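Key result, reporting period 2: structure in, sequence out.
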């Protein structure tokens, strides 16, 4: 073995540097003092925004940045700053701060941390959450939607998820986001679909008119280059177990047409299965729906689907739907 003196020299140099300057320790110290600034009652919101920017700069390069912030308790602190004080009107500074703080919350939030969100079970905090969602910018609305998704995805926050589903104002707001021309509609669809994990939430969403908004989105999604139509459709499929959802679909002038549009698309098969399944559910109960589907061209779409590369399962379902419809054209 030949000792490598160059390497040894480099190691010595590095060790000496280490005693004078430890980048990791320094960052933790800096972050802890920046945290004090965020906690301080004297600091203005503008000041706190600057603090968040400094944290961004400090943690950008380091891999351990997020875990340092979590260890120092930044997540509950940010949530407290965002939702702790209820103001009925969002000021300009509030908006700026909320945009940044929310994006930090989303960055730090991982499944192990979801229970912090249970702070929203407190009435006053939920109210602030609502104010942020109602009056916030598109960016804030999108972030709030992502928080709702997080809440819906964890067992630890189930109770809160049910609480959100009872909040009619919030549901209305979410449903209004779903429109093919709105930037935030995709986040809205994801949040709505996530809330559907609870049966009680499904009922309320349908009552607030979610079906017709989702149908409009699907119907116009191509024209506006929106690509969450398959997700919107699988949400409808799930909701169709409710009689009220079936009625909303049948009574919607574009309802069956929107489903048929999704049966076969040249570019992709995502959504085909949900479309066929939803049509089957609707047509099983209603002769009128079968007639309407046939005159809107469902047969051509199904035949195209059967000749395509879609999954065997989808083809089986398509054949069953054809059989069901046959009774009307024989
Ligand atoms: C010795 O270490 C230096 C630094 O890592 C390296 O560049 C060099 O190639 C090494 N020399 C030998 C003979 O392995």
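The corresponding designed sequence is given below.
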């Amino acid at each position: 073995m030949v000792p490598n003196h160059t390497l040894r020299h480099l190691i010595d140099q590095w060790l000496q540097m280490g005693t004078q300057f430890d980048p990791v320790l320094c960052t933790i110290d800096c972050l802890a003092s920046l945290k004090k600034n965020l906690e301080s009652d004297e600091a203005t919101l503008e000041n706190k925004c600057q603090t968040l920017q400094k944290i961004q700069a400090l943690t950008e390069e380091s891999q351990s940045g997020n875990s340092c912030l979590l260890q120092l308790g930044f997540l509950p602190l940010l949530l407290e700053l965002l939702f702790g004080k209820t103001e009925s009107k969002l000021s300009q500074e509030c908006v700026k701060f909320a945009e940044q703080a929310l994006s930090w919350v989303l960055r730090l939030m991982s499944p192990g941390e979801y229970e912090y969100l249970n702070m929203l079970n407190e009435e006053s905090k939920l109210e602030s959450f609502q104010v942020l969602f109602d009056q916030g910018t598109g960016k804030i609305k999108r972030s709030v939607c992502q928080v709702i998704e997080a809440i819906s995805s964890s067992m630890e926050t189930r109770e809160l998820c049910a609480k959100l589903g009872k909040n009619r104002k919030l549901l209305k707001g979410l449903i209004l986001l779903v429109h093919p021309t709105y930037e935030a509609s995709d986040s809205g669809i994801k949040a709505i679909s996530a809330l559907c994990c609870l049966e009680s939430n499904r009922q309320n969403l349908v009552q607030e008119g979610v079906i017709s908004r989702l149908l409009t989105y699907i119907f116009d999604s191509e024209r506006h280059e929106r690509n969450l139509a398959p997700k919107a459709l699988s949400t409808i499929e799930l909701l169709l177990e409710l009689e009220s959802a079936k009625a909303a679909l049948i009574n919607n002038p574009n309802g069956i047409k929107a489903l048929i549009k999704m049966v076969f698309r040249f570019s992709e098969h995502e959504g085909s299965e949900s479309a066929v399944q939803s049509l089957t559910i609707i047509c099983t109960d209603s002769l009128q729906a079968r007639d309407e589907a046939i005159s809107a061209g469902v047969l051509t779409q199904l035949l195209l689907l059967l000749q395509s590369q879609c999954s065997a399962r989808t083809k089986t379902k398509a054949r069953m739907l054809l059989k069901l419809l046959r009774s009307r054209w024989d």
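The mean pLDDT is 91. The longest helix spans residues 312-329. This case is discussed further under Risks and Mitigation.
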